[in-house]
């Protein structure tokens, strides 16, 4: 299959894809993840809390232990037990995340680059199978009360096969293959993000009630079924967009091709823009991952003492508000200003959400925090879309592999940083970690502003370039044809 090209102003996609099929695959995958992460976070907290109450040795953790509101009495012993459970569960979440992220950094680089020559479907199936293995081992830990170090093994195996990040890399590269560069691609990427948000709202709300009614085991069963469905849809119904080449699957060039995508010389100011966007995404993801890991523990701790149902309601309300605002405002904003500026607006909104969360002292403030972040879903989509426009069609897999690897690096360092800050301040000022996050988002905002300055400078330079004569124009066209043929 020939790569997708723009010829005579007309974009020619690589294949015809059933409308909404790719979006369905991404949403189902995301639904499985949303079922998993809140479940394992709450499971670890309740298991640690039971152990502090000297129940863990004789009590099954299949969902019936301490699922009520353990803050019913504000005794110093109960509060101390909860703070210790928060600290220990935060540490276990850090270890599990590191066991997944460290091998995932390298596997994502390799598998992401492979998708440019061996096919995008391969990059979706391999990580999903790894996640299914992790689900099975986690279910055994929850059902049979196995030691928690088994979760480290599960995370490591999942990371070696790429994890969800690599699957999303392949999906974004697939999307770049079948969409026209520019506003269309930006809109499709944002739609995928929005659908993930809608899915997160529904699944989070349902998972909260599901955990209260059935415990921690059955939400993991649902997640496993969803990942199995993803493999089925990709293998049987999704057409391939890349013609497999005869290059060896494993080579040193696979590992370095992603790095070369970001550092090789490019016309205009594209290379510094790409590097700044990568750094901006690094800081953004570091904060988003830290916020996702710690929000559940923060809300379950004193003085909020939320449990599964209220956690699900908060997640559903916040995600619905943010996704609705993104869908309603994306088109008007991108028609008025460039995607970089839209990203800056979203980052400022994210700062507002973090500040309100960090300073919250009651439930009302926590529920209003996502409303303050009504544009916070936009920056990640804008960064991916703008980055995609700066590289060629055959570099999309390597580009998004680099983005996903940065995400895993962010998890490694971000989890360590924010978990350390939270564990150190949970007794005195639990919200301090959110104030630290807001400072990092401010730096991200500065970087996005610098990218916009470079873009405008590049546009002005191109505008004042002399117009080539007819002969020169013909030579340039012939050179381009030769390059294409090569």
Describe this structure in words.
A two-stranded antiparallel ribbon has the order 1-2. The protein has one domain: Up-down Bundle (Growth Hormone, Chain: A), CATH 1.20.1250. It is mostly helical and 486 residues long. The longest helix has 43 residues, at 76-118. The protein has helices at residues 21-52, 76-118, 120-144, 149-160, 163-178, 183-214, 217-237, 252-263, 270-300, 308-336, 339-358, 363-372, 378-389, 396-425, 432-463, 470-485, and strands spanning 5-7, 10-12. It is globular. The model is unreliable at 1-11, 55-61 and 469-486 (pLDDT under 50).
Give the topology:
Blueprint: E1 5-7, E2 10-12, H1 21-52, H2 76-118, H3 120-144, H4 149-160, H5 163-178, H6 183-214, H7 217-237, H8 252-263, H9 270-300, H10 308-336, H11 339-358, H12 363-372, H13 378-389, H14 396-425, H15 432-463, H16 470-485
Helix pairs in contact: 1-2, 1-3, 1-5, 1-6, 1-7, 2-3, 2-4, 2-5, 2-8, 2-9, 2-14, 3-4, 3-5, 3-7, 5-14, 6-10, 6-13, 8-14, 9-13, 9-14, 9-15, 10-12, 11-12, 11-13, 11-15
